Amino acid sequence: MTPVAVTLERHQVVLCLAAIAGGAAVGILAPATAPVVAPAITPVIALLLFATFLGVPFRTLGAALRDTRFAGTVLAVNFLVVPLVVFVLSRAVAADEAALVGVLLVLLTPCVDYVIVFAGLAGGARDKLLAATPLLMVMQILLLPLYLLLMAGPAVVGAFDLRPFVEAFLLLIALPLGAAVLVQLGARRVRAVARIQDAATTAMVPLMMLTLAVVVASQIADVAGRAGALLAVVPVYLAFAAVMVPLGIVAGRVAGLAVPERRAVVFSGVTRNSLVVLPLALALPAGFALTPLVVVTQTLVELVAMVVLVAVVPRLVRHPSSTPPA
Question: Which of 37, 72, 183, 288 sits most deeply, having the most CB atoms within 10 A of its CB?
């Protein structure tokens, strides 16, 4: 990682919050820009995931995933524990189909991008979490339709057009992942390709900032305009984070994981894939116009929670010889 990339990553939390504030200012002060920047959401997310996947050590991925204790714990937390928690919490908004679908879309899908940085800032095992990224992506793609069917019902799921979901998978997952693998292979033989890899690594934080700014700028006016309806989902998101922290701690302890791995499990269980599922929410029929705003609201709530957890998780999951900070 280049010195510039290290510096940017060290200050990522502040930079991401600044990007959100900037996007909100643009979206509120100049609401006419929203339809102009909205089409950029999918391309910038695809670029962000390309940069994320470039950081995955594919050559050593098999060895990393052979740590079945860590991988199994992350999968169990995200695809067994989380769905149970989400089902219970989502009943609070079950009467509103658009809100329910938004809550389910975002809370049932574990994050694969900035969770790695936040976990690292809290002393978590970011390398193992990074290696598990493709596995988390594949599992959520396979299981999300099933969980939506079980929790939202066949009538709601039947209103979906599958084509946008397939397109989103190809554009946001398959294409960036395939390109990242090719670049990694080429970087070992061609110097110009190696420069692309270095540039993408350096661009990771700026891409995250751009993505957040674009998403917020394009959606914040609508979020503000529907604030009354969206307030109902905020307690759900806060409760989810509050519940998943202790459950993640317990899961890591039961699995006998080391402290950095336990911290990574906590962040993986709490942090959701809002940026990746947003294009799916935007592709829903007109009757689900509130759904993308529900997803964006989760992003805003979660980033505040992440700032708190970076400080709190090291206090909750400590090395045996350490003492609580004053």
Answer: 288
